[in-house]
Design goal:
Largest sheet: 7 strands, antiparallel
Shape: elongated
Number of strands: 7
Number of helices: 1
């Protein structure tokens, strides 16, 4: 079945890959584009109204991407799940992350080096066991929205 190219995007059509495998039995994932800002307040010129000095300028001084994902624990996991993510976290090294459309896109819309900052397991009695993972970008990703073609944004 072909993925539609018009209309609303179904969340199941967007996948997250950590390391070499897509997150399996994933119930949701969230990508957050973060901006670190600096405020600048200046005294207004004598020709400007008093209220001109009440407005602060903002400048972006840093960018990062945060990713969180949640999934169900599964005994026969063939894709990336709790066991694999825990092992990647335990290695204490950066991992390659890709966010992409299941079908139709030739390349990911986010790709780069990320650090796994936490892996959490939740195991309620008489209910599905779940896990969550948190990741933070490790330097400038190779692909992200707004990145100039041909290299670094800096």
């Amino acid at each position: 079945m072909a993925v539609p190219t018009t209309g609303y995007i179904n969340g199941s059509d967007l996948l997250l890959m950590v390391g070499t495998k897509a997150i399996g039995h994933c119930t949701s994932h969230t990508l957050t584009y973060n901006s670190e800002t600096k405020e600048r307040a200046v005294k207004p010129a004598t020709s400007a109204s008093y209220s001109a000095g009440l407005w602060k300028g903002k400048g972006v001084v840093g960018l990062s991407i945060s990713i969180s994902a949640e999934g169900l624990r599964y005994y026969g996991e063939a894709e990336g799940g709790f066991a694999e993510l825990s092992a990647l976290w335990g290695a204490g090294t950066a991992v390659t992350v890709k966010a992409y459309e299941r079908e139709g896109a030739a390349s990911p819309y986010v790709e780069g080096s990320f650090v796994i900052t936490s892996v959490e397991e939740t195991s309620p009695a008489q209910d599905d066991a779940t896990y969550s993972v948190q990741l933070e970008s490790n330097g400038e990703p190779t692909t992200y929205p707004g990145k100039p073609s041909g290299g670094s944004s800096t």
